[in-house]
Amino acid sequence: MQSFNPKSGNFKKPKREGQTVTVGRVEDVPPNRGATVELLNGAQLALYNIAGEFYAIENFCPHKGAPLADGHLCGHLVECGWHGWRFDVRTGECVANRGTVETYEVVIEDGLIKIRV
Ligand code: FES
Fold it and tell me: Quick one: which of 3, 6, 41, 69 could link to 65 by a disulfide (CB 3.0–4.6 Å)?
């Protein structure tokens, strides 16, 4: 088992490879919900459906490493479930504390959710 150290960063963050990865169908993520997306190489993303618009960010809170896919959504903000830091899923900016998370472009084609990594 790999030990977790938040200071070492997000070891599950996808590497930027210029690829578009199909991760599911639109109906797999209900409106105003988040989901964890696990890529074939073990990398993870947090995917959100906000009123029919899809957004993807890294699945790692920069405070202590909580999975942001499990956070509470309020509009375009996701609140980390561990200590309440909030991030704008459109920009990755933390709204009340220092820190950002990486964002990934989401494309919907023929009902499929595709993420550019
Ligand atoms: S781990 Fe996210 S706010 Fe602490």
Answer: 6
Ligand 1 center from residue 94 Cα (angstroms) = 11
Give the predicted TM-score (pTM) of the model. Answer: 0.91
pLDDT at 9: 82
Q: How far apart are CA 74 and CA 82, in angstroms?
A: 16
User: What's the topology of domain 30-116?
Assistant: Rieske Iron-sulfur Protein (2.102.10)
CA–CA separation, 3 vs 95, rounded Å?
29
Alpha-carbon dihedral angle through residues 13, 40, 27, 58, given to the nearest 10 degrees: 0
28 phi, psi to nearest 5 deg: -70, -25
For all residues of the chain together, what is the average pLDDT? 92
Spans of the chain, pLDDT less than 70: 1-7
Does residue 48 have its Cβ closer than 6 Å to ligand 1?
A: no
d(CA 81, CA 86): 10
